[in-house]
Amino acid sequence: MSTGLIIALIVIIAVVVAAAAVLMLRARDPRHGGGLKRRFGPEYDRAVARHDGDTKAAERELAERVERHGDLRERPLEPAERERYEARWTAAQERFVDAPRDAVAEADRLIAELAGARGFPADGHYEDQLAALSVHHAHHVEGYRRVHRVAHAGVNGAHDGGAGTEEMREAMVEARALFEELVRPSRHDGGRRTGADHAARRDHHTPSLFHRRQAKES
Question: CA angle, 117 as apex, 103 and 133 as ends, to 5°?
């Protein structure tokens, strides 16, 4: 084999290896393809569905969210703040028994305020706040989207009269997962878990409040 052929083969192999390395890095990059799918989970599938199956368009949207909000650092809550939010959520769940629409509206406001307190976009910028939350809490952000939609059903001239009691109950149950993620201390908060521990003990019993509503209606 001639020296020239050997050099050519070495160059070709080097190019193939470099191309494979680039593809691997892109796959791991949270702003591209597989990285986006891993980062966003169910939110990735929702974006694809919203773009009628166009994965490229969905990935451009998600990559833009990461570019805008990926560097956001969540602000820790003080223990007193945490306990106030937990008390409000418990009160909203209890209120659901007799005033489900008011309870859902309070849950929607509460998550918006809590997200703002943690450093996410606030001041009524719902879409921007939702996009930022989807970058950092992708697996639970749908609960916020749903409770916001239900809270505003039948408002601003809608003719469907709003959501039914069961739909509102399901929205609150789903939204609670995001609330708990936002209110609990993160690993950067110094492990201050007193408020969260109290909430866990209180919330262990609160789902029965929703069932009480069903019993009253049966």
Answer: 80
pLDDT digits (tens, 9 = 90+) for 150-160: 999 865 444 45
3-class secondary structure per residue, 55-79: HHHHHHHHHHHHHHHCCCCCCCCCH
Give the closest residue to 35 by CA, choosing from 13, 10, 62.
Answer: 62
Global pTM value: 0.70
Mean pLDDT along residues 58-65: 95
Question: Apex CA 129: angle with CA 128 and CA 135, to 5°?
Answer: 95
Min mean pLDDT across 1-15, 32-46, 75-89 is at 1-15
All structural domains of the chain with their residue ranges: 3-69, 79-217
Dihedral of CA atoms 31, 33, 35, 41 in degrees, nearest 10, equals 110
